[in-house]
Input
Amino acid sequence: MGSGDEQLPEIVVLGPPVVFALYDQQFSSRFRFLRPWESEEPLPQFLASRARSTQAAICSGDFSLSAAVLANLPSLRLVVTSSAGLNHIDLTECRRRGIAVAYAGNFFSPDVADLAVGLLIDVLRKVSAGNRFVKNGLWPNKPDFPLGFKLGGKRVGIVGLGSIGFEVAKRLKAFGCGISYYSRKKKPFVSYTSYSTIHELASNCNVLVLCCSLTEQTHHLVNREVMLALGKDGVIVNIARGAVIDEKELVACLLRGEIAGAGLDVFEHEPRPSPELYQLNNVVLSPHNAVLTEESMEGLYQLICGNLDAFFTGKPLLSQIPDE
Amino acid sequence: MGQEINPQTNGFHHHLNGDRPDLLVLRPGLLFKVFEQEFLAKFNVLKAFESPLPLDKYLRDHAQSARAILCEAIVTRITADLLLQLPALQLVVADGTGVNHIDLAECHRRGISVTNTGDVFSEDTADYGVGLLIDVLRRISRADAFVRRGSWPLTPEFPVGRKVGGKRVGIVGLGNIGTKLAKRVEAFGCKVSYNSRTKKQSAPYDFYPTVVDLASQSDILIICCSLTDKTRHIINAEVLNALGKNGILINIGRGPIVDEETLVKYLVDAKIAGAAMDVYENEPRVPSELFGLDNVVLSPHRGAFTEEAFFDAFKIVMGNLDAFFANKSLLTPLTTNE
Output
């Protein structure tokens, strides 16, 4: 660090987010950071002793920014989360304290949508399973590697037609899929069919792509009844949050053949997917990395810096969360 | 499996087996295996592959009156020599789209009709190509393997993926498959250009006159063309050099379109960034050097094969056979120009 280091604004990093690890040097040339994970002190003590006057925090999408943590940051006025999701932040407490929150907004939506489609094709066409089959020296062999299932013509139900859901729909239409959706609010300018319950959506589809945020209402939204309504040819893709699905029931339905397969980027207890999933050839498992592309990480670095610069120079934030 | 059809002696097979016409099958392709019962029900299937006789003796003893042959494409070769041994042959039914294994000129000279399965596989093949593209860029299979091994959280060495949107996709062969693939990747924000035998006036993409030119302007090169004398080994060192260290090759065409030995070397030496292949030069042999490469996705030639398309292909194959034996017009006859 240079001699002018003390003049740099001080920011506490909670997580840390992947983008911070990837861009540590670049971040450190612009700001001063408190890095709790480098200390042996437990987090509450670290914050209480070191972060009393810290005004800004960067936090990862899987760090639980609770009222208890916020209580140890009495000077905090800004949180920049590296995620698009907000379910890990006590927004009520932030509002009460007057702490502004900036996030990744729609920035990641194309990358997440790309992964959702990639997972769906993989499950239907057995891409990863085929790769394992060949690399284990099993090709050609009896029995023959099984045929896959056609994507074109599938009736796709999007759960949550927000920015990500919209990008997923756009891509799958190019493959000849039919699109319908279930969302908190019907979208008036959208020509896709909307259903007023997820059960109705599942009954009329053979693919569900979960694109909604995790809230009290969407916790375990996809339960056994929904999966049975989707049917034994049904495929579920989850790029939202693990807890939107009742994972124990998902495993049971997969084991009993009550649905045909699943592509999952998120799980109820990351980083530990239900172990039964590891034995299944009709699931594709992804380590919650739908936003992790080189290009998005570069863009996220710029976005976080832009928000921090704006904050420290009294300008409007680039990506403040909307009022709800 | 059904009952064995007893071998018939020359000239008497119609009496022994009723009205079912002969259908010669040298090697069973996947289509035949999946729908074997349906073929056995309608035809006296001459299963050359189950006979202990050498092929020429089998054909001499059993296939002199065979008017139709159903053939797979990967190992079977319908050559002029083979056709000489089948004096009654009037119809060659391919079980797929490609006909590079059939001497079309000789068939034409002999007055033998040839049918393929038309366009039934092109949509699913295009879908598969996109799936392979996303897999290589976003490392889906690789990450799935890591998770199954219990390696999540991923180590810092696990490479971050690459964005699909904005990538320059170069399509080699803008036919039925290439056209559908172009439409799909455009929906992801990719920029499409192509090389083809001839420029397609109606195609809204940039045309490059050579594959090397195309490769030099592409991040991802996808092989969608058929195998001909002109396309054999068209993907060679020069093309791979032009594609470059960050480039990705995807082959959903035919194995021999790629100089596989060179490709393997380039992948092992990291002279291109990754690859995915559904087809191989000496199928079903796959170079074992590729097994340990995490940036390579290997597929057991299933790019065209969905249950739905297979059934559509079966209907066309059976439709052509029915039409032929009823002296009606074939559904999907090829000319020597195809």
Remarks:
- The CA atoms of residues 310 and 316 of chain A lie 6 Å apart.
- The two ends of chain A are 41 Å apart (CA to CA).
- Chain A has a mean pLDDT of 95.
- The longest strand of chain A covers residues 10-14.
